[in-house]
DNA sequence: CTGAAAGCGCTTACAG
DNA sequence: CTGAAAGCGCTTACAG
C-alpha cells in the first residue's frame, strides 16, 4: 500500500494539486470551504507530505547537522556530549526539526563532511563544538555559505553564530576553591597548583590556561600546566606526573578539564596513597554523575550542559530564520559543587 | 554561488543528463571515454548530488531512524545509549548512511514518530531498543511495512530482524559470582539474593527476573525482586528497601540492572555503613567507566555495547538489501569484571 | 552506447 | 479564489 500523494488528496477533494498544497500549508488565498474539504480529504487518506519532495522544492531540509571529531569511546564516556546532544534534540524537536549526527576521526574529516553536507544540501545548518584556535571548519562554513552556530569562548568568524562560554569565569570559580584551600594550609606548605587540560589546539583549553597562569601569578602561587589528549590509556602517565609535581614542587591542588579524567585520576592517586583533598585537592571543570560516585566525591564546576544545547539550537534556528548572526551567553547558574 | 547540478555537469561534458547520471553512478552501458569525461567535468565543477533529489527519485534515503523513548537525563547518563549510538553510527558511516536520532517522551510517542517517518518516507528503516512484552511499535512497523531491527531477548514479530540477547546467559554469569560468594559465608549466614530490575514492561527485565527466580530456587536460595523506573530520585528509596532486605531477610547479594543504579546504590549503602561486598555484594548487569571509579570498584558484566550497535546496524542493512528477515546473536565475549 | 522524455511528490509564480 | 504549468535535481525505462 503506497502512501497517498498530494495528487490523491487533490483528486479526492476535487481541486488542483496547487490548491491542495496551499490549503494544507496554510498559505493565504484559499477559501475556507475548500481548505476544509482538502483537510478532510488528507485526513481521510492519511496523507503525510513526502519529506524528500518537500526538501527538494523548498530547498530546505529541516535537518541540522552535528559532526563530532571524537572517538566513539570519548563520545560514549564523556557526559558532555550526550547532555549536549540531548539539549539540541530537545529544542529542535519543538519545531519538528531533526538532528543528524555523524562521528568522524578528526577535524579534517569533519571539515570535509561539512563541505559535503553543504554541497548535498543535506542540512539547513550545522553545530560546531570544540572550537579551535586555528579552526579549519571556519573556512568551510564561510566558503559554502553554511549556517552555523558554535559553542566557543571567542568568536570564530563574523559568519558564525555563537554561544559564548566565559572560560575566565569558569576558571575563576574553581580557583577560588583551590586558593581558599591553600590558605588553610600551614605556612610552610607548598603553594603550587596544576592545571591538567586538554590539547592546546582547543580554544577553551588555552583560555583556561591563560587565566590559570594569570590568577596563580597574581596570588603568588606556583603554576604548572599539563596537556592531555584525554585518552584513557594516558591516565597512569598523568598520574605519575601529578605525583611528581606533588612531591617535588609541593603541588597541592589540580584543576582537571573534565569529570572523566578527574575521576580516574582520583582513583589512581588513591592507589598511590595520596589523600584527596588533604594532600592534594582535585576540582573538575565539568560535572557529572561520575563525580558523585567516587569517594570522596569530586568537587566540580556544574553547569547545565543540556540547557547549553537548547540555547545553541535556538541560536542556529534564529540565525537561519532571521538571516543574521546571533550571539548569546550561557548557560547561566554555574556553581561549584562538592567539598573536596 | 549555487552548487552545480547534474545539468551543469552534463553540459560541461557535452552529454545528456541521463548519460551523465549513469556515468556518475557506475551504471553499465556508458563508454569508458564518456565516463571519464563526465567524471572530469563533475570534478572540475565540484559537483555533489543533491541529497533530496536523489532520495525523491530513488525512493530511498540512506537514513536510518532511532527514536528513543527515554528522558534526556537517562540518555545523557546511561552509558548504554551512547555506546549503542556510537556503534550504529560507526557501521552506518562505512556505507555513507546516516543516523537520525529523536528523543520522545514515551513509547506511544515513539510509535507515532515511527508511523510519521514511514509516511514521510523519511528513513529506510528503524532501530528498536528496549523491547517490551506488549510492544506497540510492532504493529506500526508491520502496518507501514517499515524495515526494522530490534535488540531483543525474544522475537517481536516475523517482520522484524533481531539481534538476540541471551538474558538467561547474562543472568547466569552474574549469579555464578554471587552464588560463589554465598558459599563462602558461614553456615548460619542468610542465603538470599535480590534482583533490582527495571520496569516489568520490558522484555529483558522479565526474562532476567524469570531466570533469577529459577536459579535461586534451584540453588535453595531466597529470592526477592524489586522494580525500579531508573529515576535518580528513587535511589534512596531503593536503598532503604535493599537495606531492609539485608537486615530482615538476610539478603547478601544484589543483581542490579545497570551501572548507574549500581554505583548510586553502592554510595548510599556506604553511607549507611554497609560494607560491600563483605556484608552485601553488588553485581551490575551493565558495565561502564562508572563501575571502575567507585570504591570498591563494582563487579559488572561487561559486554561490547558498541559492537552490539555495529551488529544491529549491519542486520538492518542486510534486511533491507536482501529483503529478508535476519537474526544474529551478539555481541560475544561477555565477561564479569571486578571482584566485588 | 547515447539521448529525449517522463517521473519522483511537492511548491510557487503566473494567468484567469 | 482556483487551475495549469513549470520547476526543484535527480533516475530510469524506452527508443534509437
UniProtKB/TrEMBL annotation, chains A, B:
Residues 4-58 form the HTH lacI-type domain. It holds the Pfam family Peripla_BP_3. The keyword Calcium does not apply. One of its GO terms (molecular function) is DNA binding. Gene3D superfamilies: 3.40.50.2300, lambda repressor-like DNA-binding domains. Keywords: DNA-binding, Transcription, Transcription regulation. InterPro entries: HTH_LacI (IPR000843), LacI/GalR-like_sensor (IPR046335), Lambda_DNA-bd_dom_sf (IPR010982), Peripla_BP_I (IPR028082). This is LacI family DNA-binding transcriptional regulator. It comes from Brachybacterium rhamnosum.
Amino acid at each position: 500500500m503506497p502512501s497517498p500523494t498530494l495528487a490523491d488528496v487533490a483528486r479526492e477533494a476535487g481541486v488542483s494539486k496547487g490548491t491542495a498544497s496551499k490549503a494544507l500549508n496554510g498559505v493565504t488565498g484559499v477559501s475556507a470551504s475548500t481548505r476544509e474539504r482538502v483537510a478532510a480529504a488528507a485526513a481521510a487518506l492519511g496523507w503525510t507530505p513526502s519529506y524528500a519532495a518537500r526538501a527538494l522544492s523548498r530547498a530546505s531540509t529541516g535537518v541540522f547537522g552535528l559532526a563530532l571529531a571524537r572517538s566513539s569511546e570519548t563520545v560514549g564516556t564523556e557526559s558532555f556530549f550526550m547532555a549536549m546532544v540531548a539539549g539540541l534534540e530537545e529544542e529542535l524537536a519543538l519545531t519538528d526539526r531533526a538532528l543528524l549526527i555523524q562521528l568522524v576521526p578528526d577535524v579534517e574529516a569533519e571539515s570535509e563532511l561539512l563541505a559535503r553536507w553543504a554541497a548535498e544540501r543535506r542540512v539547513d545548518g550545522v553545530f560546531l563544538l570544540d572550537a579551535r584556535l586555528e579552526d579549519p571548519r571556519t573556512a568551510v562554513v564561510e566558503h559554502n555559505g553554511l549556517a552555523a552556530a558554535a559553542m566557543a569562548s571567542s568568536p570564530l568568524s563574523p559568519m558564525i553564530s555563537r554561544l559564548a562560554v566565559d572560560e575566565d569565569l569558569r576558571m575563576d570559580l574553581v580557583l577560588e576553591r583551590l586558593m581558599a584551600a591553600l590558605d588553610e594550609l600551614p605556612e610552610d606548605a607548598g603553594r603550587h597548583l596544576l592545571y591538567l587540560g586538554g590539547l592546546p589546539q582547543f580554544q577553551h583549553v588555552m583560555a583556561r590556561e591563560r587565566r590559570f597562569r594569570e590568577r596563580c601569578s597574581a596570588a603568588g602561587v606556583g603554576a604548572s600546566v599539563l596537556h592531555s589528549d584525554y585518552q584513557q590509556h594516558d591516565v597512569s602517565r598523568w598520574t605519575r606526573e601529578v605525583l611528581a609535581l606533588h612531591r617535588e614542587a609541593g603541588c597541592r591542588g589540580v584543576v582537571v578539564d573534565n569529570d572523566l579524567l578527574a575521576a580516574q585520576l582520583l582513583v589512581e592517586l588513591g592507589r598511590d596513597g595520596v589523600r584527596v583533598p588533604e594532600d592534594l585537592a582535585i576540582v573538575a571543570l565539568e560535572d557529572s554523575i561520575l563525580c558523585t560516585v567516587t569517594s570522596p566525591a569530586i568537587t566540580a564546576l556544574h553547569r547545565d550542559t543540556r540547557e547549553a544545547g537548547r540555547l545553541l539550537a535556538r541560536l542556529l534556528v534564529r540565525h537561519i530564520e532571521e538571516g543574521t548572526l546571533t550571539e548569546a551567553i550561557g548557560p547561566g547558574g554555574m556553581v561549584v559543587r562538592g567539598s573536596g
